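Progress narrative, Year 2. Work on Trafficking protein particle complex subunit 2 from Aegilops tauschii subsp. strangulata advanced from sequence curation to structure prediction during this period.
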Amino acid sequence: MASTACFVIVSKNDIPIYDAEVGSAPKKEDQAYQHQFILHAALDVVQDLAWATSAMFLKSVDRFNDLVVSVYVTAGHTRFMLLHDSRSEDGIKSFFQEIFLNPLYLPGSRITSSHFNTKVRALARKYL
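Result:
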């Protein structure tokens, strides 16, 4: 079964520093824009929830049709956001946790590492 997933990392200043369509469903250009719009719209909900709880993994914070927005917020308020149609909460949490084990970057800059991009896509195939 093909899955839909879009992964975005947003800095504490609301600047996207990484984004990728990582699902196995066929990609359409207008769909990528819609996914980015859904994730951007969820930022306000994420901000409110991040201040209301001490949990870092916020699970499902928003929905759009059959798509769910799951978020992991770091101590530095960087948001790891995943728009997906997966039902596996454990898989989503494992995906986020393995992403954190990747190399550091210069704060505020875009992540352009091809190694990081390859790792994100491999983890998406594994867990989503």
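The chain has a mean pLDDT of 83. The CA atoms of residues 79 and 89 lie 17 Å apart.
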